[in-house]
Amino acid sequence: SQTIHQWPATLVQPVGSPLSLECTVEGTSNPNLYWYRQAAGRGLQLLFYSVGIGQISSEVPQNLSASRPQDRQFILSSKKLLLSDSGFYLCAWRASGFSYEQYFGPGTRLTVT
Amino acid sequence: GNSVTQMEGPVTLSEEAFLTINCTYTATGYPSLFWYVQYPGEGLQLLLKATKADDKGSNKGFEATYRKETTSFHLEKGSVQVSDSAVYFCALHYSGNTPLVFGKGTRLSVIA
Fold it and tell me: Is residue A61 predicted with pLDDT exceeding 70?
C-alpha cells in the first residue's frame, strides 16, 4: 500500500530564516506531487505541483520554491521566511494515469515568529 | 473557469440530526467530483467520489450524488455524530494532470 510522509510535524522559525520541508511517498512510482498551504481557519491554497522529476509548476508567486530531486520526494523551501508564511503545509500525491483522487500527508505546522 | 462553491459555514447540529452540505460546480466537460474531510490538526482524507453523472458515492454513512443537470454534489448523512465534527471540502477534477479544484471548506460542529 502507499504511504506519504511529511516532516517535521511542527516547526517554529524566526523571520528571515531558511525553510526546508520534506515529503516522500512510498509504494508507488511516478506520482503527481503537490504542496498546499492552509492559513488559520482558511481553505487550501495550491502552491506547487509536479508531474515528474525536475518538473515544477508554481501557482502562487511568493518567496517559496519547490524541488523534486527524486521520483517520490518533494521539497518545499524558502531562503528567508516572512511572518505571512505561517500556516499548515500539506503535501499530497496522485497516481499517474486515470485515477484523479489526491492523497494527503499529515501536514507540517509552521509558525514564523 | 473551473470552480467549486460550498455553502458558508460553520454548520452546527445536534447529534443524530440530518446533515446536508451543499456543493455546486462550474466546469468544462465532465469532471470527477470528490468530498474530503479534515479533522483538527490532520491532513485531508478522501471521503467519497463520483466519476460520472448520476453516480452516488458513499462512505461511513455519508452520501453524495453527481447531478449534472443541477451541477451539484451535495453531501448528506442521515444521523451525525460528535465524531463527524470536521471541515468538509468539495473538489473536482476536470482535465489530465491538472490538480483538484477545491471549495473553501465547510466547518461542521456536532454537539451532544
Answer: no
